[in-house]
Write a structure and sequence with these properties.
The longest helix is centred in the last third of the chain and has 11 residues. The chain has six helices and 16 strands.
Length: about 240
């Protein structure tokens, strides 16, 4: 599997960084994990539309705002005659209705639930609902005995569930919005700290941890050092980084 990092920042994009988005390529399939503000500018048009599947972890705009931009590009490239599949939660209902009621031509929508398992080509995809402000799913992708887990957004209370979900993964891509000293600030009900992300990786026995979902202006080195207190094989990701699993 090939992983290309397209977006790592939240809640808005800046000149050099955009909101969460990751592209996984395996055989002839493409899986786009989230497509937050600004991320569509890094896509390779029109080739991106060959066997493209978009999975939206949750309907916060920093994770899904560029969906319509991608759909619009597809419609403008009429000669390509491609279709895409989009997988997303059905709530909040107002946001689900917004995204699924426009630009419908050549987009096939599928609803994610916590019991979903889907297959795209030879790729198996599983979901686990996290604790976040709205319905949100972590995503596990398995192909040819290799497993990648993308946590999406989750809070301190999800730690045990995430440890089990990521068990023995080859790669864990985890949000690491907070530092441990944010504990008891109220933010721990929304996001996770870098230290706890490292602890999840260690206890789950994952091979490699990638940190993402940083707030605009954060010192990413500080997050890396905190994660390394609990897990050694960890990297901070940046836009256009590429990894092979």
């Amino acid at each position: 599997m090939k992983l290309t990092v397209l977006g790592t920042e939240s809640p808005y994009y800046t000149k050099s960084r955009v909101c969460p988005c990751f592209l996984i390529e395996e055989d002839d399939q493409k899986i786009l994990l989230d497509c937050g503000f600004g991320s569509s500018r890094f896509l390779n048009y029109p080739q991106i539309f060959d066997n493209l599947n978009i999975i939206i972890s949750h309907l916060h705009y920093d994770h899904c705002a560029d969906l319509n931009a991608i759909q619009y590009a597809l419609l403008c490239l009429k000669k390509e005659n491609k279709e895409i599949n989009v997988y997303l939660p059905a709530s909040p209902e107002v946001d689900y209705d917004f995204y699924t009621s426009r630009l419908l031509e050549r987009t096939n929508f599928h609803i994610i639930t916590k019991n979903n398992t889907i297959n795209i080509g030879n790729i198996k995809i599983e979901f686990m609902q996290t604790f976040h402000l709205i319905e949100t799913y972590a995503i596990k992708i398995t192909s040819k005995n290799k497993t990648v887990v993308y946590t999406a957004d989750y809070n301190f209370d999800t730690e045990n569930k995430m440890t089990e979900f990521a068990k023995n993964a080859d790669l864990l891509i985890s949000e690491s919005t907070l530092l441990e000293n944010n504990h008891a600030s109220g933010l721990e009900k929304v996001h996770i700290s870098s230290f706890r992300t490292g602890r999840i990786a260690k206890n789950a026995g994952v091979k490699k941890l990638l940190l993402t979902h940083f707030s605009v202006g954060d010192n990413r080195q500080t997050h890396l050092l905190e994660a390394q207190k609990s897990f050694n094989n960890v990297e901070v990701v940046n836009e256009n980084d590429v990894f092979y699993i």
